[in-house]
Design a protein that fits this description.
Elements: H1 5-11, H2 26-39, H3 53-66, H4 68-78, H5 117-120
Helix pairs in contact: 2-3
């Protein structure tokens, strides 16, 4: 799904004006965002036709923080150009903090029994729960 010039003309006022020397125009960036949202891929897997993935991601992040993406997608849905419904949210493991004890576990090795089983002997500790007698 890519936005045509006519479709982009309806939502162009929702996007910020571009200043300076930019490599990608807003339409290309918006098409790249829609592509990633539609296919559920990684940013690094963005096809070369959309431009540098880092440029697209940086602009998308900036738009999301400033509320531009919300306005754009509301307008796209209002005009029935694009129908988007978020049904699931996924967390990447790179942003979930781990307890310090969970970062490196000891390597568990198999128990090495002695050559003679008799030398191994009975277990040294057995815990048997006992009921105390009532006085």
């Amino acid at each position: 799904m890519e936005l045509t010039e006519a479709q982009y003309g309806h939502i162009e006022r929702c996007l910020p004006t571009q200043r300076g020397n930019v490599m990608l125009d807003n339409r290309q960036v918006l098409n790249a965002i829609v592509y990633v949202a539609e296919h559920g891929g990684k940013w690094r897997g963005l096809p070369k036709q959309f431009g540098n993935w880092r440029t697209v991601y940086t602009r998308m992040n900036r738009w999301a923080k400033s509320g531009v993406l919300d306005r754009v997608f509301v307008q796209l849905q209002r005009l029935q150009i694009l129908r988007v419904k978020i049904e699931a949210v996924a967390l990447d493991s790179t942003i979930v903090k781990v307890h310090p004890d969970g970062t490196g576990a000891l390597i568990k090795t198999g128990r090495k029994p002695l050559a003679a089983l008799a030398a191994d002997g009975p277990p040294r500790f057995i815990w048997l729960p006992r009921m105390l007698e009532r006085p």
